[in-house]
Write a structure and sequence with these properties.
With 913 residues, this protein is of the alpha/beta class. Helices cover 37% and strands 21% of the residues. It has 35 helices and 34 strands. The strands form five sheets. Strands 11, 12, 13, 14, 15, 16, 17, 18, 19, 20 and 21 form an eleven-stranded mixed sheet that branches. Strands 3-2-1-4-7-5-8-6 form an eight-stranded mixed sheet, with helices on both faces. The longest helix is centred in the N-terminal third of the chain and has 25 residues, at 248-272.
């Protein structure tokens, strides 16, 4: 027994947190029992002002100690603090987090009252919330449990910072933080939770954890750091030594932790570790996990994919562990279930059972030449890698139709962009319609195996619903629909020679009546459509828009052309009534307020939906539920979709832009290379056409104003996109991350660079900073108060005006560099974050700036400034090599882009009539 001086000791490890440390320390000083606490600050070798802040704080209070201990990382600092503690209870606080003012008293009073060795309180994260599964254990009152087996999921809450520990209990069990490793908290907290005979759960928030910017967090690159694979395995090896001290139920909790916490590492190790190191890891991991039963693995893993590495350990099959895609190439049908086609002992067979199978239809397209419809989609057999075609043949079954046709496996760029082992997860099947009778036929994908064939229902996707419309194929009408629980069905009706169209319309009206009877979503809209059909019959309605509040891009220029040169067309522009851009459209006529009754009525009769951005995000009235619209109304209207693009696609945007994701009928490209990329890489075929951008018609240079334009693109990980803000996303949650970002740091340093400011002054230039639309609310404080630097407001200066008027253009990755190349304006690339950009925002496509670009590529502020000065000193002239590259890239260099666009869209409408 030791005689504690204080009630609670708080150990704070510190390392380079000068920005947050004072806030953390102030939260400690505000504790209601601060005078009864011992605060031990241990600096772990900071190179910033953190040691000074800690020393200053310690000088103010007699119960605060500040030390420097540069060894052992955070675990070493915590152990030093723990050894110095002279209190009955101890807790830990990271130096960038904060404690609510009553946190320590709440936990301490519970510890004294309940006489428990471990108290756990709620932990919140900020600026973004986190929903940990174990939060469900917290009720409205304090609960005391007889051990961790009563709250088993709590074992995964490994932080030591929202817990209060009896220091005698900790010392008696020799529980220490592991030094010099990641996950040092788990080496301490998990043994404490396993060994504690009584645990109190306090339903109050006792800790506020700060989610730091991605590049600063030690956990953000969890799967990338090779050391993590070894550090976590070291944790599992240590925890295994505790098993003899645990009762049966706690052994189960331990087993669950051992498997769940390492399954991600075991799965990803082959992607990260070199062969020799991977083999060593495999052998050490085998020594741990072969001490568990297959049932323990089965009950604790997420799915079959995560079970395969453990299966390899049980069988001592390194090739399966290291290269599962080469060892598993088929599935086997048994009793209606699918299993990985591997030869394994019967005891291990449950580990090979495919835990889930999903089949999604993404496109149903008429194939009149073949007399049928093409059904395309994707599938996942969990645990079967799709990094190459599987050996199993497949068939598509239109149930009850008598049609079961071969389905071929298809490589998909969007699936590969999602995950490498999904790339061959696409399928296509041609379903003949000639002999199919009237009816509704659910679609199923059949996997043909050496055992029993197994079928799985096909479900609908957003893309399928976007492209769903009645289509005539030979003597049949075919309509793809979503029925029941999102099941994909083909509705087929005979198209009789004389009355085919009339019969089909009567059938659809019958569906409207059924919809009304059931009061299903959009039944009123469909009724209104039917009542007003006479006013719109044989009128081709073109609805055009961009974002709800903008008219600056391809959509604006196409609409302007239509209203000036094709006024007979029923073309309408949809835009917010309060938009600053609305004024420029007013003189053209046919401008409709977004969300108005007229907007809704036109949507009920639209022939074409035309946008430079996402149609469903920006062209639907705000109160219309997108999912219900697609399921219940979109197919009834049958409007074709045209994607004008708002920038040249030079990166791999297949995750968002693949044909089987968008449901688009026509996509615009500016060059043969871009069109081919859409056609081949993203499966658009002849639906992608090199037509040029409508906005290029107005791209006439207006240089000479001595202006440099800096126009960086956005980063999806540093803001909440406008198309998600209506879904409850919190823009404020990412502002702190932006404040610490490489992006902001580079812009701030560039816009304040003394040499750049001097050059602008010397050559009499102004630098205009035009933030991306999605970043415009994030860049406060980025632009300095300097007469040579201006921030442009897109509500007052259009992007195109800024482009035409600049003499030199600077961007990082913005596709607007193609507009500047078209204009002939010199430009340079400021690519300061390539690794981060490609890892978190985009994937490389067919265009390489160093090889294909239209200006020099820079990586640092100094390099950018050097190039700017060079261009300013030579009168901002583009070099001949960049002239040659620009001429080689674009399919057209004329001013007929709008005319070509109009012709192509009209042909689309006519071909589908």
């Amino acid at each position: 027994m030791f005689d504690p001086v204080y009630d609670v000791a708080v150990v704070v490890p510190i390392f380079n947190v000068e920005r947050y440390l004072q806030e953390c320390l102030d939260s400690l000083a505000r504790q209601t029992i601060f005078d009864r606490c011992q605060v031990i600050l241990v600096d772990n070798g900071s190179s910033d002002s953190s040691p000074g802040i800690a020393a200053s704080f310690a000088a103010q209070y007699q119960n605060v100690w500040a030390f420097v201990h540069p060894q052992g990382k955070a675990g070493g600092a915590r152990n030093v603090g723990m050894d110095l503690a002279s209190a009955r209870y101890i807790t830990f606080c990271d130096s960038d987090d904060v404690l609510p003012h009553d946190a320590l008293e709440t936990m301490w009073r519970t510890a004294v009252k309940e006489d428990v060795p471990l108290i756990i309180g709620r932990m919140e994260t900020f600026p973004e919330e986190t929903s940990w599964p174990w939060l469900r254990y917290f009720g409205t009152n304090t609960q005391v449990h007889p051990g961790i087996d009563n709250i088993p999921e709590m074992i995964h809450g490994g932080s030591a910072c929202h817990k209060l520990f009896d220091l005698e209990f900790i010392r008696a069990n020799n529980i220490r933080f592991r030094e010099g490793v990641h996950f040092e908290d788990a080496f301490f907290s998990v043994p404490a939770m396993l060994l504690a005979d009584r645990i109190a759960m306090v339903p109050h928030t006792v800790y506020q954890y700060r989610k730091r910017a991605a590049e600063d967090s030690t956990m953000d690159k969890l799967w990338e750091r090779t050391a993590n694979y070894w550090d976590h395995l070291l944790l599992e090896e240590y925890l295994l030594t505790l098993r003899p001290r645990l009762s049966g139920h706690r052994v189960e909790v331990l087993n669950r932790f051992l498997v769940r916490s390492y399954q991600g590492f075991a799965l990803r190790a082959p992607e990260v570790l070199p062969e020799a190191e991977l083999f060593q890891l495999f052998q050490r991991a085998r020594a741990v996990y072969t001490q568990l039963t297959p049932d323990a693995i089965l009950s604790s893993t997420h799915d079959t994919r995560h079970r395969v590495p453990f299966l390899a350990m049980f069988m001592n099959w390194f090739e399966l562990f290291a290269r599962p895609g080469q060892q598993i190439s088929a599935v086997y049908g048994r009793g209606g279930d699918l299993y990985l086609d591997l030869s394994v002992p019967s005891a291990l067979l449950p580990l090979t059972k495919v835990s889930s199978t999903s089949v999604h239809v993404e496109r149903v397209q008429a194939a009149p030449a073949e007399g049928g419809v093409l059904v395309a989609g994707r599938f996942v057999l969990n645990g079967l890698p799709m990094s190459r075609p599987m050996r199993n043949p497949m068939q598509l079954w239109a149930e009850k139709s008598g049609q079961m046709v071969p389905a071929r496996q298809v490589w998909r760029s969007d699936l590969k962009a999602t995950r490498d082992d999904l790339e061959w997860g696409g399928f296509e099947a041609l379903v003949p319609m000639g002999s199919v009778k009237d009816g509704e036929f659910p679609l199923k994908l059949v996997f043909c195996t050496s055992g029993r064939d197994v079928s799985r229902p096909c479900t609908t996707t957003t893309a399928m619903l976007r492209g769903a419309r009645g289509m005539r194929v030979g003597n049949r009408w075919v309509l793809p629909l979503s029925k029941g629980k999102d099941n994909a069905v083909l509705v087929v009706r005979e198209a009789r020679a004389k009355k085919g169209a009339k019969d089909w319309e009567e059938f659809l009206q019958g569906l409207d009546a059924e919809q009304k009877k059931r009061k299903a979503p959009f039944w009123r809209a469909r009724a209104i459509r039917r009542m007003t059909l006479g006013f719109f019959r044989r009128k081709e309605i073109w609805l055009i828009g961009e974002r709800t509040d903008t008219a600056q891009d391809n959509s604006l220029h196409l609409f302007t052309y239509l209203r000036k040169h094709e006024r007979r067309r029923k073309a309408y522009y949809i835009i917010d009534k309060a938009s600053a851009d609305r004024a420029k459209l007013k003189r053209l006529g046919h401008v409709v307020a977004h969300g108005s009754w007229r907007h809704k009525l036109l949507l009920l009769h639209a022939s074409l939906l035309i946008n430079a951005y996402d149609i469903d995000s920006y062209m639907l009235p705000e109160e219309w539920n997108r999912t219900n619209y697609l399921k219940h109304l979109n197919w009834r209207v049958g409007a074709r979709r045209v994607f004008l693009q708002h920038g040249v696609t030079d990166e791999d945007g297949s995750k968002a832009l693949h044909r089987n994701r968008t449901g688009v009928d026509l996509v615009f490209a500016t060059s043969a290379r871009e069109a081919a990329y859409f056609s081949e890489h993203m499966h658009y075929g002849d639906q992608a056409q090199a037509l040029g951008f409508p906005r290029f018609d107005a791209l006439q240079p207006d240089r000479g104003g001595r202006r440099v334009l800096l126009m960086p693109t956005w980063r999806k990980y540093l803001t909440v996109p406008s198309y998600l803000q209506g879904d409850g996303a919190d823009q404020d949650a990412v502002k702190e991350i932006f404040q610490e970002s490489t992006y902001r740091d580079f812009m701030v340093r560039l816009l304040r660079d003394p040499r750049l400011m001097k050059a602008l002054e010397y050559y009499d230039f102004v630098l205009d900073f035009l933030p991306h639309y999605e970043m415009r609310n994030m860049i406060d404080g980025v632009v300095p108060d300097h007469p040579r630097v201006h921030r442009l407001d897109q509500t007052k200066v259009s992007v195109q005006t800024a482009l035409r008027q600049c003499d030199l253009f600077i961007t990082d990755w913005s596709s607007v560099h193609f507009d500047m190349a078209y204009l002939g304006t010199p430009l340079l690339y400021a690519r300061f974050d390539p690794d981060e950009y490609w890892a978190k925002h985009a994937r490389k496509g067919y265009f390489e700036a160093e090889r294909d670009g239209f200006g020099p590529v820079c990586g640092t502020v100094d390099e950018v400034v050097n190039e700017v000065i060079r261009y300013l000193s030579t009168g901002c002239r583009r070099e001949p090599e960049y002239d040659r590259r620009a001429r080689a890239f674009f399919a057209f260099e004329d001013r007929d882009n709008c005319a070509r666009a109009t012709k192509a869209i009209a042909q689309l409408a006519a071909s589908e009539a």
